[in-house]
Amino acid sequence: MKRKILNISLGAAGLVCLLLLALPALEAAASVRLKDLASVQGVRHNQLVGYGIVVGLDGTGDGRNAVFTTNGLANVMRNMGINIDPQQIQVRNVAGVIVTAKLPPFARAGQYLDVTVSSMGDASSLQGGTLLATPLKGLDNRVYAIAQGPVSIGGIEAQGPTPQGRQRNHLTVARIPAGASVEREVPLSFEQREEVVISLNTPDFTTVQRMTQVINGLLGPGTARASDGATVTVTVPPDYRDNEIALLAAIENLEIVPDNAARVVLDERTGTVVMGENVRIRELALAHGNLNLQITAPLEGQEMLLPGEPPQVAGANQRLVRMPEGATLGEVVRALNAVGVAPRDLIAIFQAMKASGALNAELEII
């Protein structure tokens, strides 16, 4: 079965985009590489941070009240052999900033990282400035990289004839592409390891069991064992000793059919609804304004709304939707959309369904 995407328009009330992700009949059609579901323990980014000084601004730097900027500039001048009292510094071309970067796994000395520069004081813009050499430290307080270079705020500031036509960039946050050089490496090696631990990005008992079975199918029974709902420990087979990288390359390309709990995600700001096609509704009778929704087992002679059929209109100011028990949430939404339900009304109906126990899915509002 192909993955279906359905866009639902609710007229002037707003736009509701309903993405129906159907579970395939064949497992191979929904298989995902293990590398897209999990990661090897120890292979991760490390956060780096440092305090720096941006110079060369066009009068848009920090004011005199930013003591950390004047003290920082005085320290920079002192390191260059110039002693100056911080109280005498009254420059508007300098800004104190926090510099952040991510140190990727297996980064080697001499490689370059992108850095983000964020103003700390009352500078109005970092445009045109240059970051002075800034040590970037990890959580262990060791210096892992040095950042320096001209900053870029990305784009320009444009103004139109009306406030609605103006476009203004965020001028106090900038980036320096390849602006930091790696000076210290984080030791990470898989040589001579007897075990490798793989962690799921989203814990799930069914998925971790399937992952264990697939790995054992490749390496042999008992090679992989699940420790919990997110962790699989793989014993390195004798054939892969001293060649653990080849083992990891073989494992990460294995294909697995992930299993996820039924979930409905609602965004009240944009009216977006995302759900799985297999989310079904139990017996329910709901009244919302002039709308009546009935989901029940069909009785003899009772007409039910089937997928694709227009909802019934009981009266001039009353809308009636009857559907059989076991109808999918996608079918319910299509029926409600046909009678012109507004996005906020749709979200309220879902919340009422969840509270009544008729919606057997996790309801998440973002």
Q: Main β-sheet, in a few words? A: 6 strands, antiparallel, barrel
Strand order of the largest sheet: 5-6-7-10-9-8
Tally of contiguous helical segments: 5
Distance between the termini: 30 Å
Order of helices and strands: EEEEEHEEEEEEHEEHEEEEEEEHHE
Radius of gyration: 29 Å
* Number of E-type strands: 21
What is the general shape?
Answer: flat
Approximately how much helix is present in the residues?
10-25%
Strand content: 25-35%
Residue windows where pLDDT falls under 50 for at least 5 positions: 1-29
Determine the mean pLDDT.
78
Could you say which structural class the secondary elements and strand pairing correspond to? Answer: alpha+beta
Summarize this entry quickly.
With 366 residues, this protein is of the alpha+beta class.
Q: Can you walk me through this structure?
A:
The chain is of the alpha+beta class. Helices cover 17% and strands 33% of the residues. A 6-stranded antiparallel barrel has the order 5-6-7-10-9-8. The protein has a 5-stranded mixed sheet with strand order 1-2-16-15-21, covered by helices on one side. The chain has a 4-stranded antiparallel sheet with strand order 4-11-13-12, with helices on one face. Strand 8 and strand 9 form a beta hairpin. The longest helix has 15 residues, at 205-219. It is flat, with a radius of gyration of 29 Å. Residues 1-29 have low confidence and may be disordered.
Features:
alpha+beta; 5 helices; about 375 residues; flat; 5-stranded mixed sheet
Topology, element by element:
Layout: E1 6-9, E2 15-21, E3 32-33, E4 38-40, E5 46-55, H1 67-79, E6 95-103, E7 112-119, E8 130-137, E9 143-150, E10 173-182, E11 195-200, H2 205-219, E12 224-226, E13 231-235, H3 244-252, E14 255-256, E15 263-267, E16 272-276, E17 284-288, E18 291-296, E19 312-315, E20 318-324, H4 329-338, H5 343-356, E21 362-365
Parallel strand pairs: 2-16, 15-21, 18-20
Antiparallel strand pairs: 1-2, 3-14, 4-11, 5-6, 5-8, 6-7, 7-10, 8-9, 9-10, 11-13, 12-13, 15-16, 17-18, 19-20
